[in-house]
Amino acid sequence: MGQDGKTETGIVPVVLSGGTGSRLWPMSRASFPKQLWALLSERSMLQETVLRGSSAGFAPPVIVCNEEHRFLIAEQLREVMVEKPSILLEPVGRNSAPAIAAAALLVAQTNPQAVLWMMPADAEIKNHHALQAVMEKAVDAARIGRIVTFGMTPTRPETGYGYIEKGEPLPGVDGAFVIRSFREKPTADVARGFVEDGNYFWNSGMFVFRADVLLEEMNKYAPKVLEHVKAAFEKRTTDLDFIRLDKEAFSQAPDISLDYAIAEKTDVSAVIPADLGWSDVGSWDALWDISNKDADNNVLIGDVLTEGAHGCYVRSEGMLTAVSGLDDVVVVVTSDAVLVTHKNQAQDVKKLVEQLKREGRSEAFTHQRCYRPWGFYEGLICNDRFQVKRIVVNPGGKLSLQKHFHRSEHWVVVAGVAVVTRDDEQLLLRENESVYLPQGCTHRLENPGKIPLTLIEVQSGAYLGEDDIIRIEDSYNRN
């Protein structure tokens, strides 16, 4: 499926990639959330999610994401050779109901009865064979007008998930049931009762439905959502390979999940219980639970040493990390933050992120390495009046033509070849060559070579914020 929403088959995977995964801080942050990380395999969670649909021979996927991640997501799809994806850009986050409404409107343009398989970008499914069998049942139920969700067979009295209570069998679809009720995240005692009862299942957040059925039910139960999303869709624009929804209209849509907006109200919902080896990978203890462990029941990733440690999750994204004499702890080390918590308290990491936000700390939102459509930069040294960064530009990459009012810059090439525009000059720099960019000059950096360009940037001035950039011309249509 391309930007016109045309489908080659009747089943369209729709991947929602709008979350930030704050319980997996300090790795997952708004600038680079958990679905973009390779947490369980050599591929990112987004890539694994998208490949579930392409491996089944379904239509090219629809990805709904925020504007900040659009180039990262496009590059990750290219890496796993996903062809003709449709990438819908949310100008603001409005939860899953508006997001899926936009996807349904896109698909319904050319095939109103196409079956959509909506799934979050950040969940793990181990049993792909069982998934295939469940999908066949879900598609059968969706084609007769049902909005189907998957109920995951609970393996423990989990308090971090919502639950679905199944009712009577659904006529005509073996293994499917009418939904009797949705239940919020329970207390421990209530969760134990759910597991013992046998009729309650974890709410996976995955849904299967026809585009026209979803839009009809939304018009009935969430008309304001549909009204504003439809307006945003009608005023959409294309931006390179992206579909940009109108910001003013989309911002007026209610902030509500599909569960609350439709699934809990409609009389055409259904659930298919399944044991898929599913996890929402929502916290560090959940990640420990589904990862491969050593003889001491530890999950160790990166440059890590342990002595007398048991049942731990220890991950280092760089420096040597040593853990001695501790049991059941989580230790995560990044370039700018260290998290240490007991596994039983892993759900409370979100509270730390909220505290960082209240204090205005950048670590709540961004990493030292910041990705851009042309490559990335990362901070090395930061002081009051100067800072040092490493900049890596992909082959063919080009920064915007820009200027700064409050700082000057000095660029030193350490690998590759650079073409530098400085006012009316154009300079070719090789390794160990440098250029000075005085405050206020118009400048641009390009990589004309076949290998990544790496340079060291030294900034100096009274103000060094990233918002001191006046873009004059940009190849990536950034404002």
What does this structure look like?
One of its GO terms (molecular function) is GTP binding. Belongs to the mannose-6-phosphate isomerase type 2 family. It is an enzyme of class 2 (transferase). With 479 residues, the protein is of the alpha/beta class. β2 (62-66), α2 (70-79) and β3 (86-90) form a beta-alpha-beta unit. α3 (96-108) packs across α6, α3 (96-108) packs across α7 (223-234) and α6 (211-221) crosses α7 (223-234). Residues 1-9 have low confidence and may be disordered. The protein has 3 domains: 11-279, Alpha-Beta Complex (Spore Coat Polysaccharide Biosynthesis Protein SpsA, Chain A); 293-354, no CATH class; 369-473, Jelly Rolls (Sandwich). The radius of gyration is 24 Å and the shape is globular. It contains 11 helices and 30 strands. The strands form 7 sheets. A 6-stranded antiparallel beta sheet has the order 20-21-22-29-24-27, with no helix packed on it. Strands 6-9-7-8-12 form a 5-stranded mixed beta barrel. Helices cover 23% and strands 33% of the residues.
Known CATH architecture of the largest domain: Alpha-Beta Complex
Work out the strand percent. Answer: 25-35%
- Low-pLDDT runs of 5+ residues are 1-9
Sheet with the most strands, sense and barrel status: 6 strands, antiparallel
CATH-defined superfamily of the largest domain = Spore Coat Polysaccharide Biosynthesis Protein SpsA, Chain A
Question: What is the CATH C-level name of the largest domain?
Answer: Alpha Beta
Question: How many strands?
Answer: 30
Counted up, domains total 3
Distance between the termini: 28 Å
Radius of gyration: 24 Å
